[in-house]
Design goal:
Elements lengths: L7 H13 L6 H16 L4 H21 L7 E5 L9 H15 L3 E4 L5 H9 L4 E6 L8 H4 L5 E4 L2 H10 L4 E3 L4 H15 L8 E4 L6 H14 L12 E4 L2 H10 L4 E7 L2 E6 L5 H10 L4 E8 L4 H5 L7 E7 L4 H12 L6
Parallel strand pairs: 1-2, 1-5, 2-3, 3-4, 5-6, 6-7
Antiparallel strand pairs: 8-9, 9-11, 10-11
Helix pairs in contact: 1-2, 4-5, 4-10
Length: 344
């Protein structure tokens, strides 16, 4: 930490400013944000770097405010090409998938552009869609989406936009697209592989009989996995399909029993709506023993760290010590927990 941030006079002045602004919660974090801004001035940061910083914070604030009223509603982000035309089967796939998810209570988040983004927003309808657009000289927000201004935020930078397209969602559907879509898809896979994002369902949806994502799979397995730059099974977390019904079932079904997870040092706790029976637990240990670094999958009461944070204490739990980078196997375990025979 910069020593100047420990200056008593500066902290006192910031505390007085925060109090004068009427801020009563999360004051230490607000002080950190303000102190960092002052530190940028003390560092004589260039004007360009300051403009980037200011715009990024302003954009994140606007996006946080957009999403805040819908914090309790599950969201799915749909990615795909801005160039897809309305007569294209992919456009219809995106529209139908979005509509079916909206009918099940999901909100649909898109990049608020044309093509697949417009199709998804159309399927969800204005009350069930949110848009995070990017300001580009050659790509405009469709007029009917722009009119729904209270459900739309516009960004200058791709990195702030991608943050908000990913941060708020509990599922993702990627349809074929170009550099932007592939960038978004690879970022999702990277965040999952590195553990920087909790497990969520990811669907790569193609048109009926399409080969776009199967070609992607061939590249990932034939080049990335074969040369050892990713682990075998890293793509197993993803459903590749040309069926809208299967895509929707994957998104909604991922949360049928699985609720959330939490790490306690090397141990991983999975929180569930319904825990496995003794027989089901034995079967899970038999099927997923290769996931474990040591020991067994066991039931547990809330751990002390969870109790201290009042963290999902009403959920059933299993705990185990997984091997590093066993992400694909973890996804298979979550799917097995969602299909326990005792769930009926």
């Amino acid at each position: 930490m910069d020593a100047r941030l420990d200056d008593d006079a500066l902290n006192l002045a910031l505390d007085e400013l925060i109090a004068e602004a009427g801020i009563t919660g999360q004051r230490s974090l607000i002080r950190r944000i303000l102190a960092t801004g002052i530190g940028l001035g003390q560092d004589r940061t260039s004007r360009l770097d300051l403009k980037i910083t200011a715009a990024a914070i302003e954009e994140m604030r606007a996006a946080f405010r957009l999403f805040a009223p819908f914090a309790g509603t599950p969201k799915v982000t749909i990615f795909g090409s801005a160039r897809t035309q309305s007569q294209d089967p992919l456009w219809r796939e995106a529209e139908r998938a979005s509509r079916l998810l909206a009918e099940q209570g999901w909100m649909v988040v898109t990049g608020a552009g044309p093509g697949i983004m417009e199709a998804a927003a159309t399927g969800a309808g204005p009350e069930q869609s949110l848009g995070v657009s990017i300001r580009l000289p050659f790509e405009q927000v469709p007029e009917h989406l722009h009119a729904n201004g209270d459900r739309l935020v516009s960004m200058k930078y791709f990195f702030t936009r991608k943050l908000m397209l990913v941060k708020e969602s509990s599922g993702f559907v990627c349809l074929p697209g170009g550099f932007g879509t592939m960038d978004e898809t690879f970022e999702l896979l990277t965040l999952q592989q590195t553990g920087k994002m909790v497990p969520v369902p990811i669907v790569l949806l193609d048109e009926p009989g399409g080969s776009f994502w199967r070609g992607f799979e061939s590249f990932v397995v034939g080049h990335l996995e074969r040369t050892g730059v990713i682990s075998p099974g890293d793509l197993d977390r993803v459903l590749i399909t040309d069926s809208v019904d299967d895509a929707v079932a994957e998104i909604a079904g991922f949360w049928r029993n699985y609720d959330s997870l939490r790490w306690d040092r090397e141990r991983l706790v999975l929180r569930l709506r319904t825990g496995p029976s003794d027989a089901e637990l034995n079967e899970l240990n038999t099927r997923f023993g290769r996931l474990l670094e040591s020991g067994r999958i066991e039931r547990t009461d809330p751990l002390p760290v969870e109790q201290a944070d009042d963290d999902a204490l009403d959920r059933a739990r299993i705990v185990f010590t997984p091997k590093q980078r066993a992400v694909g196997e973890l996804y298979r375990l979550i799917r097995a927990l969602n299909e326990l025979p005792s769930l009926g």
